[in-house]
């Protein structure tokens, strides 16, 4: 029977080497040779695994029994295999949560670092809970943002389709009929009829080409150019920037809070941050810090970090409270993101309403211009 994961005895056991004897080491090597396949978990699957381990840490349930129990509850085949493999390795005398390289279950590097740091700091349950809580906040924010945008986008799409239907199908047919009447009566028109014979433009096609272009442009740009382009998008550009910055700040804080040196924490973030630009920058920042610079000094000269959080970072470093300073920066960015989401929710419907009215006004003007000569003809004939 394994001791509970939340107990002090279990903490010491988690920190021991993976193998306790030469015999166990040889057994593991033989097992790797016989069954070399690894179970590599993605971010979502790894997050679910960490959630279960965090629950085991808080309840004090034996690790192997808890992993077997969770294996029976999950529906995903890969997760079920991962739970059972970890339980098997624990029963064999291994320590797969700490000695990651000798385990068949492979987590993303950042999640593995958080797991080991939580075990070593004896705050495993708290650390994993905080990690998953922050990830849930970001996921919920993104869902709420798209929910705020869904109605304006749906209304804009319907308006675009209606305008395109009028512009491509209805108006050309009406124009052809009216222009033939005007030519039969040899009327002098107040406008050039060639205007109405010009090829029609499909706004839907134009819009789709624009979306394809936006998706393809990053493939030809560097991460720095792509980040600058995204931040320049009106209204939502800052959301992308703050969201990526928040992701960086949260993950860095969780590592620093476990007494991991800041340069080491930055290097661990290279494969963990959601932004390609930050993934490119974190090893550069780590190298500069290893040369003797402070994080505030490194970020001061980087245009990719919001300047509003720099005073907090400098204060945290000067008072040996970088973790608390990053937490304050995290709250600041969350408030900004929430305010920008509410702004979109409030101004989205009025803007779309104005666009709908403008489209209807445009159609009415075209009809008036086209019908007015026919009205003059009827008055002349009567």
Automatic annotation (TrEMBL):
Keywords: Cell membrane, Membrane, Transmembrane, Transmembrane helix. InterPro entries: GspF/PilC, T2SS_GspF_dom, T2SS_GspF_sf. It holds the Pfam family T2SSF. The chain crosses the membrane at residues 145-170, 201-221, 351-375. It is a multi-pass membrane protein. GO terms for cellular component: plasma membrane. Gene3D superfamilies: Type II secretion system (T2SS), domain F. It comes from the Bacteria. The keyword Metal-binding does not apply. Residues 50-172, 251-365 form the Type II secretion system protein GspF domain. It is found in: Cell membrane. PANTHER family: GENERAL SECRETION PATHWAY PROTEIN (PTHR30012), TYPE II SECRETION SYSTEM PROTEIN F-RELATED (PTHR30012:SF0). Belongs to the GSP F family. This is Type II secretion system protein GspF domain-containing protein.
């Amino acid at each position: 029977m394994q001791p509970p994961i939340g107990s002090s005895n279990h903490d010491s056991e988690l920190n021991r080497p993976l193998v306790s004897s030469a015999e166990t080491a040889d057994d593991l090597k033989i097992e790797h040779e016989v069954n070399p396949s690894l179970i590599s978990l993605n971010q979502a699957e790894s997050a679910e695994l960490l959630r279960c381990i965090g629950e085991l840490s808080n309840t004090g349930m034996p690790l192997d029994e808890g992993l077997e129990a969770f294996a029976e509850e999950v529906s995903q085949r890969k997760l079920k295999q991962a739970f059972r493999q970890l339980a098997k390795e624990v029963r064999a005398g291994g320590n797969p949560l700490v000695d990651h390289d000798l385990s068949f279950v492979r987590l993303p590097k950042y999640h593995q670092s958080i797991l080991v740091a939580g075990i070593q700091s004896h705050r495993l349950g708290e650390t994993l809970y905080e990690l998953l809580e922050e990830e849930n906040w970001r996921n919920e924010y993104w869902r709420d943002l798209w929910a705020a945008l869904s109605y304006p986008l749906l209304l804009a799409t319907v308006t675009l389709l209606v305008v395109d239907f009028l512009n491509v199908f209805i108006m050309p047919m009406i124009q052809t009929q009216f222009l033939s009447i005007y030519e039969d009566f040899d009327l002098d028109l107040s406008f050039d009829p060639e205007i109405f014979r010009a090829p029609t433009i499909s706004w839907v096609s134009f819009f789709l080409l624009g979306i394809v272009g936006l998706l393809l442009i990053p493939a030809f740009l560097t991460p720095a150019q792509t980040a600058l382009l995204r931040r320049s998008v009106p209204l939502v550009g800052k959301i992308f920037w703050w969201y990526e910055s928040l992701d960086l700040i949260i993950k860095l804080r969780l590592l620093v809070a476990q007494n991991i040196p800041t340069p080491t924490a930055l290097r661990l973030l290279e494969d963990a941050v959601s932004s390609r630009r930050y993934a490119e920058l974190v090893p550069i920042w780590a190298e500069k810090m290893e040369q003797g610079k402070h994080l505030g000094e490194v970020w001061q000269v980087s245009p990719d970090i919001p300047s509003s959080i720099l005073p907090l970072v400098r204060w945290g470093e000067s008072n040996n409270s970088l973790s608390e300073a990053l937490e304050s920066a995290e709250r600041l960015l969350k408030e900004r993101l929430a305010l920008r989401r509410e702004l979109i929710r409030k101004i989205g419907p009025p803007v779309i309403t104005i666009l709908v009215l403008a489209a209807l006004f445009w159609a009415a003007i075209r009809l008036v211009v086209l019908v007015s000569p026919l009205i003059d003809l009827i008055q002349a004939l009567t």
